[in-house]
Amino acid sequence: MKILAVNPGSTSTKIAVYEDETPRLVLNIRHSVEELSQFPRIIDQFEFRKHLVLEALEANDIPFKFDAIVGRGGLLKPIPGGVYAVNDAMLDDMLHAMRTHACNLGCLIAHELAAMLPGCPSFIADPGVVDELDDVARITGSPLMPSITIWHALNQRAIARRYAAERSALQPEAPVHYEDLNLIVCHLGGGVSVGVHRHGRAVDVPNALDGFGPFSPERAGTLPAGQLIDLCHSGRYTTEELKKRISGKAGLAAHLGTTDIPAIERRIAEGDTHAALVLDAMIYRIAKEIGGAAVVLYGKVDAILLTGGMAHSEYITSRLQERVSFLAPVHVYPGEDELEALVMNALGALRGELPVQVYR
């Protein structure tokens, strides 16, 4: 089986070509601010990014022949996790999405490229809107604002399955599956999401895009509601500027002027006490979120998994472990491999190992 995976991000388009489980090409095409500034809206980047994918395949002598093409899922309606065939309803929702993010281009690009190949299906898998919440987790203090799930579903679930596989390899006489475990998975990236995975369902996850949980390199997380309302009516900022203060120009970016963790760590090593205080505050907030997640599982936690780009930082992971290791063993999986996760989901669908769900 030959699979093409496409993962559009805010400043890059990542692609991978696999033959079964073997990667033949993994590429990160970076986009400069100048390149993207010519497009008024993210949806306007569609043709630009699609052609970059085709050019990259040609430049690397990859024939345009695939058994399936899988794209990163966008900010669709809330849906259960799994593999979905791209259909007209999905495409229409992405073209008229209420929330904009580069991930919305994933299914559009996958569908367009697959249409160039007779009989080639296009898929998405575990988009960031996966909603498997317990009913009690949906209720907030205002019926006007129920909980919304926007989180790193694809990477969290892939890492959870990887942990289960590694644990099974250590005890082949008693194999363990993701569906057998109670896990807390913390994705540490530009945004931070802490997910509670109970026997294969993500029963409590946040809206990590625009206003819930700990602050992160570029997002504000939960804010004091009264102060936020006052700021909205202060006349100091437009609506779009305020949204940037929630997601984009928030978190470490707002406090320290950068989201570069190694650069912040160098500042700390050189004696910048303010940088140390802010970074430690972020770690503190993340640890509190992990602690709260343990309550959802009544304290019966098999493992805490740390993943994402910031998991490369020993400064961050060691301090998190100090605060939360009393809850459960902590395992660190630096970075993310969403491309591989997309490919494995597509392979599972083609082989009949995973059901292909219908988006409605």
UniProtKB/TrEMBL annotation:
Family from the record: Belongs to the acetokinase family.
Compartments (UniProt record): Cytoplasm
SUPFAM superfamilies per UniProt: Actin-like ATPase domain
Keywords assigned by UniProt, alphabetized: ATP-binding, Cytoplasm, Kinase, Nucleotide-binding, Transferase
Record protein name field: Probable butyrate kinase
Source organism: Bacteroides uniformis str. 3978 T3 ii
A Pfam cross-reference name: Acetate_kinase
Protein EC: 2.7.2.7
GO function terms (MF aspect): acetate kinase activity; ATP binding; butyrate kinase activity
Annotated GO biological process: acetate metabolic process
Gene giving rise to this polypeptide: buk
Coiled-coil region(s): none
PANTHER family: ACETATE KINASE, BUTYRATE KINASE 2-RELATED
Keyword Cell division: no
GO CC, any one term: cytoplasm
Catalytic reaction(s) noted: butanoate + ATP = butanoyl phosphate + ADP
Membrane spanning residue stretches: none
Record Gene3D superfamilies: 3.30.420.40
Broad EC category: transferase
Record keyword Kinase present: yes
Chief localisation class: cytoplasm
